[in-house]
Amino acid sequence: MPDGRFLQIPSTHLLGQNFSKPFNISYEDKDGEKKYGWQTCFGPAVGRIFAAFLAAHGDNQGMRLTWEVAPLQVVIVPILHGENKELIEKCIKLNEELKEKGVRTYLDDSDKTPGEKFNHWEMMGVPIRVEVGSKELEENNLTIKRRDTGKREKIDSEELSGYLEKAPEEILRNLKKQAEEEFEGKKVNVNTIKDISKALKEKKMARANWCSLELDGEECAEKLSAETKGAKVRGERHGAKETPSGECIVCGKKAKHVIYIAKEY
Ligand SMILES: [Zn+2]
Known about the structure:
Layout: E1 11-16, E2 26-28, E3 34-36, E4 39-43, H1 46-57, E5 74-78, H2 85-100, E6 105-107, H3 114-123, E7 128-132, H4 134-139, E8 141-146, E9 152-156, H5 160-186, E10 187-189, H6 193-201, E11 205-210, H7 218-227, E12 232-235, E13 257-262
Parallel strand pairs: 5-6, 5-7, 10-11
Antiparallel strand pairs: 1-4, 2-3, 7-8, 8-9, 11-13, 12-13
The protein binds zinc ion.
Zinc ion binds at residues 211, 217, 220, 248, 250-251, 253.
């Protein structure tokens, strides 16, 4: 997450006997003794996936959504100075054409000022804004504002279809790239436990050599957590093969993993 903390999303939990005791879930073991059950649970955590998505890709203006996720993919904003029937008709036609092509589009012809509309739809994360003013009408073009890059450009009215065919993949690629860059910027290689605390204080995450992710590494994990006041080993980086060089940051044994350490929510 942007503040350097980790958010737990779909995973399993070892609940232990935390719930079986208060709910009296028990069984009789082979010696006829009553024992409390040991439980695990698994949750896909859809709400958390969305929360993580919004937090990771949003910016100071609000949400930034990918084409697939966005409830509205395009918003059309007429820039009116007084009444202009022709301009509104162009917007209505454009809106209908896009709808027919299966684009989730909305024509904002409310009484708000263009600036208010811009802010509102940017906050809502609509990937593409199409502005139509008297100049666009005259020149038969459209002004496009992209939510992923913040760039504004003019395109010919006839080019819109082609533009919207390419844009979804570009938007996804840009948002992913920006998030990856942010991830890289949060990464601090550490060699001592003191360095970990320093990195976390600066809202970064620590990356370190680690002895074992099996049970024999538990002691190191507990020591690390105690000495850093609650930071935890969050595991290896998904989809990346990172080779350790050196010794475990806690016990000094030969490292077998490169792990990330952060606080969680
Ligand atoms: Zn160790």
